[in-house]
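Appendix C: a fully annotated inverse folding record. The material below is reproduced so that readers can follow the format used throughout the book. The structure is listed first as tokens, followed by the designed sequence.
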């Protein structure tokens, strides 16, 4: 009970102490975030699972409350291994390691709906995704030469649509949370980060 009360009071203090971050024409902001993608991890059965990575981006306000916002996200490599059944000429334990890595570049437009303490926004933009998958043998006997498998790279384009919120800690620093849907990867992406106002 005490933990819940402490979190409630802390949340109230942050909210009431928050400042609205100005969204005027010519403003420049940069930020970074932890990013979670629902389809960017590689599951043990070869399917997909949650993936985690980092996001870096910025906003340039081309007019009041409207910004152009490029960003780049990379997801940490995800992998799994499997052991093959024993085959003639191979000792038990021969297997393969499968890996996958995603990166995403977005160019979004954001429109802000500012209030006294927080800035809500909607976003729509173009997304470019890159998936690099690979497979390599493991536990190979020294006297056996196997041809390595080349990595496979898939590039796709599509749309990015979502919503987010900025919570101003000062007139120069703010917290950000965002959720968006990425059409090429068919996944939800969630960001939690911090940003800085430059001018």
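Designed amino acids, in order:
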């Amino acid at each position: 009970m005490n933990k819940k009360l402490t979190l409630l009071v802390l949340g109230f203090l942050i909210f009431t102490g928050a400042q609205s971050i100005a969204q005027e024409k010519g403003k420049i902001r940069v930020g970074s975030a932890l990013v979670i993608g629902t389809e960017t991890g590689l599951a043990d059965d070869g399917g997909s699972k949650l993936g985690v990575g980092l996001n870096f981006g910025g906003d340039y306000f081309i007019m009041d409350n409207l910004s152009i916002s490029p960003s780049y996200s990379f997801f940490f490599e995800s992998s799994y291994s499997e052991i093959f059944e024993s085959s003639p000429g191979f000792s038990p334990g021969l297997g393969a390691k499968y890996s996958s890595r995603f990166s995403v570049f977005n160019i979004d437009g954001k429109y802000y709906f500012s209030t006294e303490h927080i800035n809500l926004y909607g976003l729509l933009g173009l997304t470019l995704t890159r998936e690099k998958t690979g497979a390599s043998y493991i536990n190979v006997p020294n006297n056996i030469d196997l041809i390595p498998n080349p990595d496979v790279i898939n590039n796709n384009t599509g749309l990015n649509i979502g919503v987010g919120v900025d919570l101003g800690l000062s007139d120069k620093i703010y917290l950000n949370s965002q959720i968006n849907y990425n059409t090429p990867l068919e996944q939800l992406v969630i960001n939690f980060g911090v940003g800085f106002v430059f001018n």
